[in-house]
Batch of 3 targets.
Target 1
Amino acid sequence: MRAREIGAIKSFPEAFWKMLEIEVITGDDVSGQLGVAAGRLTAYARDIFSGAGVESGECNIVFIGDRFMTELNETYKGRSGTTDVLSFNLTDERSDGFCGEVYVSLERAKTQADEGGILFDEEVIRLVTHGLLHLVGLVHDTEDEYASMTVKTEELVKSFFAGSPTCAPHTLGCLPERGPE
């Protein structure tokens, strides 16, 4: 029996059951390295999804090291070596909600931040943003798509650090106005 079928709980509004659950997970090998609060990342991701029309489902944002990222990259993308971010849309056509995961290598983020002369947290948010944008349908198979995605990523990263509303739907004009595929 599902929880919402229990008499005492039946009175919750339907919107309650169509929630978007987002979990931030940090691997043991990178524990203590993440400088951004999980709650803030969760709210940020929720805003990006909301702006793209995704209102229910679940997403994990997983922070890992290069060893596990190399394994994922080789196993699922067929590419040797590590990478900075991977996204997996795990939505099943039979489901009524979104399901996805974003993996970020904190080792790659540190290296790229050092090489770019930027703050580590800024690079982490940039990678999370890039992964989330892939999950809501943006791709960069062409130079124009890459340029467009880069502009949108930078706008969102800037808004995250400016403390403004991160991604209200009206700020996501170039995102697809649809849910998961």
Note: Residues 143-162 form the longest helix (20 residues).
Target 2
Amino acid sequence: MGEIEEQFDFNFSFVDNHYEGETKVCNKCDKELPLSCFGFHSASNYLRPECKKCNNKLAKLRKQLKEIYGMPPLGYLCPICGGSEEEVKGKGNKLNGAWVLDHCHEEDTFRGWLCHKCNRGIGCFNDNINRLINATNYLTPNKIFKQMKTYKIKITDEQGNTNILEITSTDIEWSMKQYQRPRKPFTWEIQEEKDNL
């Protein structure tokens, strides 16, 4: 090798030699394992929270659930943020598209489809409802309640039948999308709007 080649003779080995002796606790099996037992997040340089063995089990479970439940229908909206496929695509793992199969980690059952951001969000709270309530309570006096308004909405179905609905919301457009999703088509208009403060 010439002098310049010797200076740039790098070893690009991906063996985790620098992790020898270091350990991490898997967030699924709760075992303390060497760091070499953990894979890297795709396209990143940090380790996954679950060990490779648990990650393989999760991959198999997700595959089985996808075979049973398929993909969400056209026009599907994330049940947490209300984002459409067009709005949420490209915000996470590009291999999986816009939607992530969400499942209960205690019972290994299908819960639904979420966008990547919302899936990561509830994952950061360890799917713990009390933590999510605490987060909501923390935000409420500072932001959410001040932004909420109470609306009287006139709803008209396809047959011309009308109904008045009262909704308190920070985003009436999003709330009405969520209200309409499981129902037959209808039109709506705001009859009255008032601030909560």
Note: The radius of gyration is 24 Å.
Target 3
Amino acid sequence: MLTVTARAMSPPLEYTSKSNAELLLLLDGSSPEALTHALTALEWHLIYYARYGQDGNPDAAQVANITAKAFLLLKNNGNTTIKLAATNLLYALDRLTDTTDQIEYCLTEKDPQVQVNALRALQDIFSRRHQEMPPAAVSVLVQLLHPRGDTEDDMQILWQAAAIAGNMGPQAKPMIPLLQILLRISANGSSFSEQEAHTYAYEALQKIDKDANTSPAKPLSVPQSHR
């Protein structure tokens, strides 16, 4: 089963209890497991500080160092899980410094998991700024909406791409034909990802243009955890 996002990962307590400085040192290591845990623990620290207003945010020098090391891992490490964790950390850092350039780098990656994870982060960032998605992101999203096959992995990428398109509103109008194709090819699917693809394609069409053709449509309920 494909893991499209690293956000569901929970770092062990031995990592979350470490300081930012200690976690930064671990980013110089080579163990994939330790690197993933360190990246995810740093992300958790940032989320915790933001949510509960606790002291402990990294200072400006640490922010710059974390950003540089996360981006270096994103560019140079071939492990998909590490790339996802690095992207998620850069996304969490964006409230302290602008990391959109680093996240946009993910769009040049060949792995669709990395691309769709970056698109979700970018969409949230630009939505908070009340800005449209950059042209490069739109172009990659169009590519991801092209059906590549009917495996579970393919469908997981498609339903997440459809969800992103639906949240873009009128900017996603050029994607309507692709969403209509996705609606058709997933109409009789029985797997979880096929049902998700059908649901999100239908909902995206309704959000983008309520007059768009949504036949055949059989909207299904989507778990709140995926919205």
Note: The chain has a mean pLDDT of 87.
